[in-house]
Amino acid sequence: MTTLIYKGYQGSVEADFEDGVLHGQLLFVNDLISYEGATVPEIKAEFESAVDDYLATCARLGKSPNKPFSGVFNVRTGADLHRAAALKASSEGKSLNNLVVSAIQRYVEEPQVQNHVHKHKHEHEHVVVPQGPQGVSITADQAQWQTFSMSSSDDNNTRHPKH
Fold first, then answer.
1. What is the mean pLDDT of residues 3-23?
2. Is the four-CA dihedral 79, 85, 87, 89 of positive or negative sign?
3. Do the domain assignments include residue 9?
4. Is the pTM of the predicted complex or chain greater than 0.90?
5. What is the secondary structure of 44-104 as a DSSP string?
6. End-to-end alpha carbon distance in the chain
7. Mean pLDDT value of segment 58-76
8. What's the CA gap between 117 and 153, in Å, rounded?
9. H or E stretch at 106
């Protein structure tokens, strides 16, 4: 879903492929305010017009327009997390509210890090030199050399004769 912002209000934009139109609604207000358009410039203009109309209607009715966010919300964490957060806040000399506000600020202000998993196949060539009988040294000329290829992507790092 794409969103638009105008005068502090946010609105959605979704495509209706069956009817061939774009439509949306004003988000985070208690009233249902919708708009539609056939093109991107048109949906943007309709959204802005809907916000202006909403504000004018509220003024005409003597009603305070809903602010998109009041700064107060309830969070349901479960008893164990609630207790742990309260203990952590207390140990840091903070209120639970201050702990939550600072955690949200960190979350919002820090750049998002996307975790990527990269798998690479690495080939290593290992030369195995046979050992002679105890106390007997074998020269390179006398040894039968075998070359093995070991792939780090193998599940159990088994050795495969190289062909």
1. 94
2. negative
3. yes
4. no
5. HHHHHHHHHHHHHHHHHHTPPPPPS--S-------HHHHHHHHHHHHHTT--HHHHHHHHH
6. 54
7. 86
8. 14
9. helix 96-109
Comparing 163 with 53, the larger pLDDT belongs to 53
Closest CA to 47 of 26, 16, 68: 26
103 and 131 part of one domain: no
Question: Which residue segment(s) compose the domain that 87 sits in?
Answer: 79-109
Please give the C-alpha separations between residue 69 and each of 27, 62, 65, 72, 150, in angstroms, as whole numbers: 10, 20, 11, 8, 59
Both 27 and 57 in a single domain?
A: yes
- Does some domain include residue 96? yes
Among residues 73, 97, 74, the alpha carbon closest in space to that of 85 is found at: 97
Whether 105 and 127 share a structural domain: no
Number of domains in the chain: 3
> Is 68 a domain residue?
no
Shared domain check, 55 and 6? yes
Q: Is residue 118 part of a domain?
A: no
Residue 63 to residues 8, 21, 123, 128, Cα–Cα distance (Å): 18, 32, 72, 86
Q: Are 3 and 12 in contact (CB under 8 A)?
A: yes
| Beta pairing partners, 26 | 11
> Which amino acid type is present at position 48?
E
Instruction: Tell whether 132 and 93 lie within a shared domain.
Output: no
